[in-house]
Write a structure and sequence with these properties.
alpha+beta; OB fold (Dihydrolipoamide Acetyltransferase, E2P)
Amino acid sequence: MSISTGKVAGEDLFAKATAAADELYSFRDNYFPLSPEERVSKLQIQSDLALQILDTIPIEKRKLPLQRATYEYLRGKVLDVVPVYKKEAEDHLSKAVKLNPSLVDAWLCLGNCIWKKGDLNAAKNCFTFALSKGPNKNILCQLSMLERKLAQDAENPEEVVDESIKHAREAITLDVKDGYSWYNLGNAFLTSFFVTGAWDHNKLLQSLKAYQNAERDEKMKSNPDLYYNCATVNKYLENYERALTGFEAAALMDPGLNAMEDARMMVVLLDKLDYLLRGQSKAKRLSSLSSSLATVDLSPSYKRATMDRLSEGLNKGYAIIGKVLFFAKNESLAPLYYVLSDSSHTFYVISVYGIRSDAIKEGDQVTLLEPFNRFVDFSWKGKLYQFKSVRVDFVEQVLVNGKCLSPHHAVRTSIYAQLKA
């Protein structure tokens, strides 16, 4: 940023200061060094330069209430660019909205500033008041994001997240091509997946579709959080190769996301599953397998099948029965992974969502109703991963040792840390 020393009309100086503030925030959104401290330091330097540009506006050009409001807003906005709360920024932004209550951008900045202070309800009041001045996609997105934060401590988190989805959708109706609004909707659906028990993969599919729409906006291609969250969705959809590719892309753009750790954990899990599946010949794990599976009674509404008879995807009207050979410990909270074998000695993996870890144990006989089957087949870093997998989303899909699981085996898995922004 360079500071002009020439005499410029007051309006031009305000335009120049506004452009400097916008450039500052663009820098913030696209600068991701290895060290967070380096990022804050650089932001502070750029912020100081923007303040110098703002100070070139003569006092006589900021005497009228609307001029003064704009000046206070820009000063507060520039000061608030750093991640931590600054009282000085709040003071300037508060002055701006008092001088001009219709200055919607100032309400947006004030809400963000107060949010950093930890006063979430006051921040929400700022966004809500700004919306009373008229529809605004930026305000709606911030309100949607704030509601997801509020849901973490709410007695009714599902309802709060539903409000977040509603506001995210409203933002899109105002500008259907805005990538950030689509990204925000993807985040809302992903949060809904977590707070409702981390089992409803339809929410994941809605999230993925929103992220794909976001990627069509050129300016979103430099947003590492989009790649990270999209990779997270693919992880829970068990699109392992896409997830690994996404985590690596996010890590290259912003090392501070720690996305390489997510990729590492996934590879460790896949290697463990591969090792357990290749240990198929352990006789003691297979003793009396066929006879024990043959005695299971099934409802007439289900046709018994083995893994090699299943189609890719949902198999309505079918049931498969297997013995749990191994529990594969996983660093993530969900899902739980088990290696099973059916009566034909076909080995497969089940990934279990929304069910407590003590519901299924090694040695148990597990019946899966209407199994959702897929064949995982991809290479990563020169290693081939191939295995059959069945996804289990809720307790009603499972019989353990011939018995239904009780409702207390259902579990809500809230994993807010998995979501960025």
